[in-house]
Description:
The structure is a single chain. The chain is an all-alpha fold and 173 residues long. It has helices at residues 2-31, 34-48, 67-93, 98-123, 135-172. It has one domain. It contains five helices and no strands.
Amino acid sequence: MELALFGISALLTTVSSVIVATLYVWPWLRTARPDRALASLVAPHLFLRFIGLSLLMPGVVSAALPPAFAVPAAYGDLVAGLLAIVATIGLARQVLWTGAAVWAFNVWGTADLIYAGVEGVRVLPSPGALGAAFFLPTAIVPTLLVTHALIFLILIRSYVAQRSTTSSARVVA
């Protein structure tokens, strides 16, 4: 029953996140300047990624939570949060390295969530081992994964638009 509740919760949060992104977020993002769209999508990670450190807190998680899962998941989130800060500073200041910072954040952040999900399935004795951190993979991770997907869409669209502008300029010249 515990596994079913966990799965239903994560699945429905994912479905809800995709619906909100499709109906409300993406229409705005398509028309927004790429830097503003990216800043809006990176912003939740400024706060939510540091909650992953709760996986290292006794009393928050069960003693049965394997350190082989908790340590990389917690520190992976910490790094993703720090990269989100760097990406946000770059977006705000519009500096030369902004694109690289956003790509680094998004690739790391996505890989971290996927790795934690795969490892969780592989090593967790039960969802209850997450204790109070049960809400991380059932409420926060699905939404963050959707924001990562949207960031990839914007980065790729910006790259394609930039390439077509550069190609057009070469043809004209």
